[in-house]
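User:
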Amino acid sequence: MDAFTTLTGIAAPMPLLNIDTDMIIPKQFLKTIHRSGLGKNLFDEMRFRPDGTEVADFVLNQPAWRHAEIIVAGDNFGCGSSREHAPWALLDFGIRCVISTGFADIFYNNCFKNGILPVVLPPDAVAVLMADAQRGANARIAVDLPAQTVTTSDGQVFGFEIDPHRKHCLLNGLDDIGLTLEKVAAIDSYEARQGTLRPWA
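Assistant: Predicted structure:
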């Protein structure tokens, strides 16, 4: 998993409330177990018509936000079914941070396991960031995980809270497997000791 430290990038404004996981990655794309390749289907039913042509007024199809790395979203982002494909699709598209007033719990947890930083801020702060994002590609938002701040393109700073353990994992690029591998020396020592004490096991 790639580490997350700081990010300065284009933010796509998505003020819609209750953007659920089926909107993020529709069910027909859940057959794969690979984390790559899903970015092209991110928000598929919102980005494309049934014939495959783009919906011109969808934010990620507009030139200013085609290369967004941040989403500023309405409340309750990631609700619905507990599909890990949702953060996979966001990450494969290039999204590394989502900012909202609130997230569904399972989606929130899955973001950390996949190198995406979900930032929870109060409504007034999200409103400022949403307005900044709507200015387009020239307005770049800065996210600083070590400092736990989000800064608008004109320098307004908002602090956010994050669990220290989750912060440590993101800063060091550690998913569940990475956390286990940090203890590999202790695991090897335990297994060697048990092999001596209980050779029949």
